[in-house]
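[Solved] Which block belongs to which protein?

Original post:
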Amino acid sequence: MSFGTPKGAVEELQTFPRLLFHHAKARGDAPAIREKDLGIWQTWSWADVAERVRALASGLAALGFKRGDNLAIIGDNRPHLYMMMSAAQCLGGVPVPLYQDAVADEMLFVLKDAAIRFAAVEDQEQVDKLLEVRDRAPLLEHIVYDDPRGMRHYNQPFLHDIHALMEMGRIHNRNHPDFLDEEVAQGWSDDVSVMLYTSGTTGQPKGVCQTHAAFIAAARGGMQIDGLDASGGILSYLPMAWVGDHLFSFAQALVAGFTINCPESTDTVTTDLREIGPTYYFAPPRVFESLLTSIMIRMEDASALKRKLFHYFLGVAKRCGVDLLDGKPVSLADRLLYALGNLLVYGPLRNVLGMSHIRVAYTAGAAIGPDLFRFYRSIGINLKQFYGQTETCAYVCLQPDRAIKFDSVGPPAPGVEVKIADNGEVLVKGPMLLKEYYQRPEATAESIDADGYFMTGDAGFLDQDGHLKIIDRAKDVGKLANGAMFAPNYIENKLKFFQYIKEAVCFGHDRAMVCAFINIDVGAVGNWAERRNIAYSGYTDLASKPEVHELIRDCVEQVNAALTQDAMVAASQIHRFLILHKELDPDDDELTRTRKVRRNFVAKKYQVLIDALYGGKATQFIETEVKFEDGRRGTVAADLKIVDARTFPAARQAA
């Protein structure tokens, strides 16, 4: 197949459509993507995917999709939605994935902001959301749906079954056999390949325009560090609108040629992970925490002998497992014990987790606790942290093998420059930077300094080995009334290292002390309560139990003790806290869709609770409006107990 590369241009495989058709030609029978449907794994080869993408692209063209158009992608990780991304790119269009759990009004902002004319969605649920706001999104002309269930009586002419679109495209291809090759040939590496919207923690989300070259550079850098190749596979289950999924499940898959595996549903991810046995895996720290919690709960129900073996060999792993993984010297006795532990405990445990074949597992998006990090590495799972933003293709720092530090995100990745500004902000430069914010030239100019460095908004520093350590969001770093540094996210992450704490929000800027809101993890705390015969009727009731307050107080005081070891944050110990009566929720605008706290919104919404914390009150009544998944509204009310926590004197620093 000729792509008609313009004379004098060294383009080769520098766009995603060219990479796709290259794989189809070079290794057409190899598996490109799998999907579990009705309990059975279905497989599409690279040749299958290329044929369907060609049909979808030509079908879109027949409907009027043209170069420069933006295509909304909405739904869970589905093969046809990934193919629709490629189809749009073939025509010089830009896929714009949206968070599938967003409500209709949230989608409306992106539909209007990105001037969406075409949308590809998963199912009836997403179609209904778009129909709900279509009269307020006048540019929206066509909606293509993948799953026909429930769509029998939808007869609007602008709704299209994806298989009908493919047939339309195949007819178009027969009538215009050179059309798509010519369209692909017009694509350049510096064309925008995708638009990903920021989470909008401080305002309206912005569309980040990333080029083919940027994501391909990020994908190749990851391959260089971790040896990713075509022989592997990844389980694609995180939102397609998230930059990490686009890097791992789209860009790296197309560059390296490995297989994307789409689970049957969000509820079957753990089972599907065990069945498919991927070689690459990504999960945010919260998922790794919940997996470990489930393991510990299961072990409590095991026989005494199994519990004894489990804890004995975990001790062996803790002593030497990380050193073995990093290739460091380990005594022969420990090597033999670890080998026995691998046979009896670690191997079966990795199998239960679905990680028997994992070559590298990644985590990012929040800090991961050192103990949690050490646990997974000690049982032979090559878990690593990485660091990046939507504006950097999630590619700034990567941890290379045998150079892992539990308190850093690693050195700069290949091709990336990192420097620290005078105010402590992390600045980055490299081929992975955004081209622009969509139709926001002022915001684009403000994000990149005069030397071409992107201003990440994170505060951090480079240690003596050149590894980056992140402290907090630069805008969130403040000072206590006594002038000591206050880094709320740093403290919150330490709290969230405990399995019982799902979310935390700390306050203290310009105040005499630090106070905190806590969201308990209802699964972990509920299990803890049940084992102690503590009855409860739901989250609000469980959060009000005196025993739970004591449980969380112990966690808070452990964090306070740990803070004393660092002079920079020793003054930021938590003096008072309360357990919120409801979970912070994206549907209530308290979290972004990527589960980042909207700090200013939360502070304003719960000002009465902040006043109670700092006013010395022992309790505070609050009534809060909540939104349910079906659109109904209700209220949750409670008398919240305010708990005092013990603080400790700062540790003496060595001279």
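(Second protein starts here: sequence line, then its structure tokens.)
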Amino acid sequence: MSTKSSITLIGLLLFALIFEQCTGQKDLQKGNYEHAISRSIAKLRKSPENEKAANTLKEAYNLHVKLKMEEVARLKISTELFRWESIIGTYNNLNYICDQINRCPACLKIIPDPNRYSKDLEEARYNAANVRYELGLEQMKLNSITSSQSAYRHFLSAKNFVNQFKDVDQQLKMAKDGATLKVIMEHIPMHSRSLTLSNEFFENKIHEFLFNLNYEFVRFYTPEEAQTYNIKAHQYIQCRFDDFVVGQVSLHEKEQEMLRDSVILKTETLPTKEVKNTYGTVKATVHVFTKALSSSGLIDLRILDANTGSPLINNKLPGTYVWETRWGWYNGDERALSKDQLGYIKLKEAYPPTPQQLFIEFTKPIYSQITGTLQNFYSKYRL
């Protein structure tokens, strides 16, 4: 056999292999009926007269339906708690295949009446909803936050299976109320003998964060809201400044002798028209002033159990902010100065921020730590 003939034969074999895989024959042989059905439907849409794809579809469909219905029969007589949910998945799978065949004219010639399990699916959804509903009622009897959360999840599943199942909406409302942790964030006290400062911005930012946290099973209140709605708290959030200092001043002067070599000191034109440069060293004495205002504080973050008063969290969270200004002057030749020094000598001492602004700045890193801690602690109350 010539080399050319060998290459042609190999090509034909590869094509046959690819063609067989496209029609789903290989999946059928492996017992992967669902993939075999999908491949054969795809092939028949492109090539309606494909005999291999037609045979694969017919055989794979019959075997797949038989297998799935045996699975349903086994589940129905089993004691598996959520067996109806598995049955729903099976019926959905078979109905999806039915839809795919109905949208393929060539496939309908092979399987003219694919099975649709609408009534069976409706019955399975009702039974699945009833199981979840009864489990929700059992959890509600335990009368705790965690059991109410479990009940809410069961009732929600029941509603997803059957939207208007019994009084599921009313049960969801009662379960949500019992499942919700009620937390009051107390006001942050301020004590400053020398400065009049407000922590309103800082406190409001924390309240805004808690409001937008939007975890299903936790609700945050201000003390005023709790009083208005007569809320009985499960927990309290407390933030207290252990200590803080605002605008602690430090002033530093740096004197530096600067030399720069190979600087053009003089340029002259010779009678020959040639330009001659005279090089030398220039000197300058630079005075750079750095004024810094340091502000820092330490906050005590606590989450307290409302019944026992015991701390569930007790963290010390620090924050620091340093404001700086630089300016300077010099004696000597300006050409000896660096680029940075040239910038400093053109500046004047800047006016510092107000104590209130400094307070806001050093509380920013504290805010990030507080919100991170609260987000992590209450994340377990998500749905």
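Accepted answer:
You had them paired correctly. Confirming on the second one: The longest helix spans residues 51-76.
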